[in-house]
Specification:
The protein has three helices and 26 strands. The chain is mainly β and 350 residues long. A hairpin with a 5-residue loop joins β9 and β10.
């Protein structure tokens, strides 16, 4: 008899309601691993039970000893009106913590974790199965749905989504190896870049020691991008030759002789995103056979793009010079002498 009375103390009976009760049965522990002993206070506001019976607001105090929790409650997830239970745990030291329970119908006992509402969750009890809610019954829902894109006639699963002309969602059309463009079309990956460089081109003209006029098939753009070499030595524009459009005119003392080899490299009009070029620059610094430090107007990027020439002979990085930022330091034995011409080409980041 005493055992029966002890268990009865842990049961809440919803008198006057025919709604089946859900059993919550669990063993409670403290954070230290010991079993919880204290009082669990369950409160609720008035609500209509799943069978439409009226459940009045009430508070119920449940004594928990040695961690044993056993209570039966009317389900709230199927209640006609929104409902939940506020549960507070306390012991001799006062209220320790509280939580919200939402209780579903269940023929088998549930644990506390099955009914505990996670922090930040919203209580959304479902209506009875016999109730049908129309979209128009929910305030603001029609407008919210009208702002969302609809499924287009070209919609396909496992495809990139593309918005068509009316704002509906279609599936991207094309091969799986294609790239998708911002306009929704697909095609071969990569962007076709027009030819920007002419390399190792031989200017047309008689190499006979007297002819001074030569021409290139294309017009260099910019003109100072021309790197013209004679027998492997880089010539200096304005000192050894002049350039007008695609015509090269050699100056006295630099006219190609019979057997000489002329090779030209240059750029055409156009640009590469993020890449800039510096052509035919003369680094600043005194050329006197003593000064070994020279400065460029910009820092080559990458540094290996620097092509540095001394009196037409291309120098080697590390062996002949070192570069740090836009500073060039010549190695001993390679310091420019009085009368030398220092010229360079390189790329920069933009």
């Amino acid at each position: 008899m005493n055992c029966f009375r002890w268990w009865l103390a842990f049961v809440v009976v919803a008198l006057g309601s025919a709604a089946p009760l859900t059993t919550i049965q669990d063993t409670l522990y403290t954070a230290t691993g010991s079993r919880f002993s204290g009082v669990v206070t369950i409160t609720w506001k008035s609500f209509d039970a799943p069978d439409s019976s009226n459940v009045t607001a009430q508070a119920y105090r449940l004594q928990v000893s040695n961690g044993i929790l056993f209570v039966q409650l009317i389900p709230t997830t199927t209640a006609v009106t929104a409902a939940s239970y506020m549960v507070q745990y306390s012991n001799i030291g006062g209220i320790r913590y509280s939580e919200v329970w939402v209780v579903p119908p269940s023929a088998t006992p549930l644990r506390v974790r099955d009914v505990r509402l996670p922090p930040g969750a919203v209580i959304t009890p479902g209506p009875p199965a016999t109730t049908t809610i129309q979209i128009s019954d929910v305030v603001g829902l029609p407008n919210a749905l009208s702002l969302r894109p609809t499924m287009g006639t070209g919609f396909a699963v496992s495809r990139a989504a593309v918005l068509n002309a009316v704002g509906s969602v279609d599936g991207a059309v094309g091969n799986l190896t294609d790239c998708l463009h911002v306009d929704g079309n697909s095609g071969t990956c990569g962007v076709a870049v027009p030819a920007l460089f002419v390399d190792a081109e031989i200017p047309s003209g008689a190499v006979n020691g007297s002819n001074v006029a030569f021409s290139l098939p294309n017009m260099p753009n910019p003109s100072n991008s021309v790197a013209l070499s004679r027998n492997g030595l880089l010539l200096k524009q304005g000192l050894d030759y002049t350039l007008s459009s695609n015509s090269i005119l050699f100056l006295t003392g630099a006219v190609p002789q019979t057997g000489d080899s002329l090779v030209a490299s240059y750029r055409l009009g156009g640009s590469l995103p993020g890449v800039g070029f510096v052509d035919g620059e003369n680094p600043s610094g005194t050329i006197n056979g003593v000064n070994n430090l020279f400065t460029l107007t910009q820092s080559p990027n990458p540094a290996a793009s620097l092509a540095l020439f001394r009196s037409g002979v291309r120098l080697r990085a590390v062996a002949d010079y070192t570069i740090s930022g836009n500073s060039v330091t010549f190695v001993s034995g390679h310091v420019p002498q009085t009368g030398d011409i220092v010229q360079c080409y390189y790329r920069v980041a933009q």
